[in-house]
Write a structure and sequence with these properties.
10 strands; single chain; 177 residues; elongated; alpha/beta; 2 domains; five-stranded mixed beta sheet; 30% helix; 7 helices
Length: 177
């Protein structure tokens, strides 16, 4: 009987000494590992990279308080799904090798704004200060839509309010939490 209790005592020490696996982060959250790269953990079980800080800020501004740090091991177990695109309606984008300025629509759709007058009508007289240069390698994350040739073709505030969350903009299932 002494051996039985001694064995139980040893087993209980082993159980206590084994580190508990950290709970997986909830889907529809912002996560990062030991590096500064922030990801959106989507409802499809994949993580999506914010390729630039400006992309992150188009969704969350300067607020990093909701970013949860997880272990690099846990992060590596969540498959990559792609990149997050700019929030629709918030910023204008262009690449350095092309003078065209685009409004970002739903689902990462680029809509060329055909004139400066139109850009001013849509985004105000300081519209040029609202243009972000997007690094060429990330331009492929977007698709081209129809050009904007009149103010009726695009309403920035409607685009922004209809894409109030990344899961909506990307067409992922609704969060359950």
């Amino acid at each position: 009987m002494k051996q039985y209790f001694a064995l139980l005592a040893c087993l209980s020490l082993l159980v206590v000494a084994m580190p508990a696996k950290a709970a997986a982060p909830a889907q529809n959250t912002l996560i990062k590992g030991s590096l500064s790269t922030v990801y959106y953990y989507a409802t499809n079980g994949k993580r999506y990279v914010f390729p630039t800080e400006k992309t992150y800020k188009s969704w969350y501004g300067e607020d990093y308080s909701k970013v949860i740090t997880i272990s690099d091991k846990d992060l590596s177990e969540i498959p990559l799904g792609g990149n997050v695109t700019y929030r629709p309606g918030v910023k204008l984008v262009k690449i350095t090798t092309d003078p065209k300025v685009y409004a970002v629509g739903a689902g990462g759709t680029l809509r060329w704004i055909s004139t400066e007058t139109l850009a001013s009508a849509l985004y105000g007289s300081n519209w040029a200060k609202n243009v972000d240069d997007l690094p060429d390698p990330f331009f492929v994350n977007y698709r081209y839509g129809t050009p904007i040739s009149a103010t009726i073709d695009f309403e920035p505030t409607r685009e922004t309010s209809s894409a109030y969350a990344i899961w909506i903009d990307k067409g992922f299932p609704a969060p359950t939490n």
